[in-house]
Design brief:
5-stranded mixed beta sheet; Chitinase A, domain 3; elongated; 3 helices; two-stranded parallel sheet; Helix Hairpins; alpha/beta; 157 residues
Length: 157
């Protein structure tokens, strides 16, 4: 048995939409591209065929990955979180980072997009924030080895 994969309701919808796109739009387009490239003759020196097959392989790999994730997701309903100001999966947390406020939503690893303000509960900062409350300062080491710290200003559950 694999461990459940935490995901927000919005994250689940994004995963389903991506799977739908890959299976109903990309897969047929790639299949057509493979067939078109195959019709050009000798496959040994056909770079269009090689590229189309590579695209097909990558698409099928992502479809299998998404299907595996979707079989094991555990939806975290942010609306059902206790209103106790404790950072947890699904919380939106406002932190003071070097004098500037930044807002993040703590999400599961498969839906993390730091540039979009969605940090993983497994990331260095996410790990330190979970379980903390406003006023707490947490320190963490970034993947590039730099030490940072943030102070929790507000938690929205």
């Amino acid at each position: 048995m694999t461990n459940p994969i935490p995901v927000t309701r919005e994250g689940l919808e994004r995963l389903k939409a991506e799977l739908e796109e890959l299976t109903t739009v990309r897969r047929p387009a790639i299949t057509a591209a493979v067939a078109e490239a195959r019709s050009h003759g000798d496959l040994r020196e056909n770079s269009a065929y090689d590229a189309a097959r590579h695209d097909q392989m990558m698409n099928e790999r992502r479809i299998a990955e998404l299907e595996a994730h979707l079989r094991n997701v555990e939806v975290v309903d942010a609306d059902a979180l206790p209103k106790d100001n404790v950072v947890r999966l699904g919380s939106t947390v406002i932190v003071d980072f070097d004098g500037e406020e930044e807002t993040y939503m703590v999400v599961g690893a498969i839906e993390a997009k730091p540039a979009a303000g969605r940090i993983s509960n497994e990331s260095p900062m996410g790990k330190q924030l979970v379980g903390k409350t406003p006023g707490d300062t947490v320190s963490f080491i970034t993947p590039n080895g730099r030490e940072n710290s943030v102070t929790i200003v507000r938690v929205e559950n």
